[in-house]
Amino acid sequence: MNELFQQWLDGRLSVPGMIACGVASSAADAGDAAGACWSKDANFPAEKMGEILTVLQNMSPVPGAPQGAVRWHTWVFANGKIRYVLRPDGWIFAIAVRANSDAAQVLDPLTEEFLALHPAS
Amino acid sequence: MSNGAKHHILFVDDDADFLLTLRDLYGMMSEHSWEIFTATSANKALEVLDAHRIDLVVVDVNMPVIDGIQFIGMLQRRHPKLKRAVLTGLASQEKRTAALANGADLFIEKASSPEGYRSIFAMLGELLQWMPREGFQGVLRKVGLNDVIQMECLARNSSVLEIYNEHVLGRIYIQDGQLIHAVGGDLTGEHALYKLLSLPGGSFELAQFEHPPEKTLGGSWEMLLMEAARLRDENAAQTSSKPDEVDPQTLMVAANSTTSSHLEETLVCTRTGDTLFDAAPEEAEARVAWLQAVEQRAAELSRILPLGSFDRLETQTMEGRILSVSRGGKLVYVRVSTALGNK
Fold first, then answer.
1. What are B's interface residues with A at a Cβ cutoff of 8 A?
2. What is the ipTM of this complex?
3. Which residue has the higher pLDDT, A61 or B140?
4. The whole model's pTM is what?
5. Where are the domains of chain B?
6. B7-129: what fold?
7. How far is B5 from chain A (nearest CA, A)?
8. Which CATH class is domain B259-343?
9. Average pLDDT of span A90-96
10. B44, B167, B281, B286: which has the fewest Cβ within 10 Å?
């Protein structure tokens, strides 16, 4: 699965404004699902993206949203955004981008692509 | 008291004899500089108000059909510029609080001596001389339109926010803490509100409330402000090449994309969890706990990746969107169902 994500992300990581991204799985039978992170910012090591994934995975359920109904979260800060996408099969994707950048404009298409990926393919 | 323009005062009391006494007494004491009108019921008082220019209404509390405190509240809505006093024979702290909360400028107990009536005359005279300021002007550093609107709405005030810059002149009407109308340039309603709140700069003035020609806004002010913030963010990149210009066309398209939204619940609380406004159908405590958890997680994320101050968390669900906002020391939870949520 990591290879699939690697292939998918190739060519997408070079969008200006991209800071880092990562994938992981919360499913018990995820196999090679230790997760993987990539960084495009020399001042922000990929391991840090792993820490962000951990924080996001530990969020409590959202009141007012039935279990499994959440598709994604966007954390909006003054200078950037963190998008956190949840697939029904347990795979998660997080991406950090600079505010008002090209990368911020492609969050929605990237999210849709991630949700549509087929791990078996 | 006799110098200057004539004052027009309306006394409302179901005791006709008391009204006659007041008219004779205060007419004489004012050397007839007070033109005194009387009414024995709220209905008759409204007729007088429709027929004459009145500066001050003095209302008894205990009246049949509609009591004086309710009537004062009605006057505040219908005649916001009118000065209002309550005069009662049975004063209590409870009545005083209710009268002032309903918009009375003065709460007086009826007198039982000539000296007492002279005191009341003096107090009403002071009230007639008092000139309320027509709004205020000043410089509020680091305070934006959003902050002013939030303050007015949270305080459940009624006011008109006048906004202007080189591109646009607009007005946002707030009544009893609700956004009821907005106009900016050729736009009205949500389109105008979003346009005004997206202006990169300009001036504004908070003026005394007056009734708008129409009501074009409805629903929760929190939702409207959240939507404005979201649209502003979305439009920021598109307008970054021309930061001083506002593109009404872009705003029009963005605003239209949200017309199928339906507000489901809203909750506003302090950082310490005190609920300030709750229009959530259930489990308010869970919403408060969630908002506090969001703030905590945002702080953790900021420690790992500093991206500036946290503004909000947008959650997209199968049914719609949830906004968890941290702004101005307050936490806001808004849940909206949208047709877009099923895309």
1. 233, 236-237, 240, 264-265, 283, 286-287, 289-290, 293, 297-298, 300-302, 304-305, 307-319, 322, 333, 335
2. 0.92
3. A61
4. 0.48
5. 7-129, 133-255, 259-343
6. Rossmann fold (3.40.50)
7. 56
8. alpha beta
9. 92
10. B281
